[in-house]
Prior knowledge:
heterodimer, A: 138 residues, mainly alpha, 69% helix, B: 126 residues, 6 helices
Amino acid sequence: MTFRKYLVLVAIIVFASTGDISLSYGMKRVGAISLARWTELFAAVLNPWIALGIVLLLGFFAAYLSALSWSDLTYVLPATSLGYVLLALLSVWLLGEKVSVTRWIGILLVSSGVGIVTRGPSATHRHQPEPDSAGDQR
Amino acid sequence: MSAVSTWCAIAGIVASSTAGDVLLSRAMRQIGHVGELWRRAGLGAVLKAIVTHPSFLLALFFMAAAFFGLLLALSWADVSLVVPATASLTYVTNALAARLFLHERVDRRRWMSALLVCAGVAVLAA
């Protein structure tokens, strides 16, 4: 794992949580949309916060695809689950909520999972190409 | 709507989002390190390799299915049940599927971390 690769993982965490925060903030300003008037969802895209959220989530998707191209799915998913912690902290700071004891326990559990996986190898070492992907080796 | 149908929807969401993640991972592994491909052949080549990869297109289909499944489940049950249940179960099914279909070496370390994150997400969102 190089420094650049850690930066990509950080980008996944930051883009995913800030994107969700932005979407959630935007939808709260737009207000509830009933299923009977679902076409209003398209108008919601014009809200600047929703648009910003979509841009951030596109950044997340690009970073996620990049990470999956050089490391295992079972490494990327737990390693980037710190996003849940960041999301909880951001919603607490921005919405002024109090952090309950159970939430601190959740943050501790996620963080220890991240700590454990990132101390191990990021990709399964393969001595020979997989049979089903042999034709795609470039 | 009954609890059974809610849990069926949750199972469907977990299955499709796992299929989506596994297919996405398979597509990106076959394409290879995108940073190197970008330097060698440019951004256009990277985008073309991704959007024309059959596994990527199938992954998009499953991710869309998971999204509409989520909308359906949210119309039957509370968000505080559906979102944590699907998010945390997906960590465990992804570990299983990555071992079975991607032949990743899911050792004790990775199992521990998947289970800790799974428990943590469930507690955090509860």
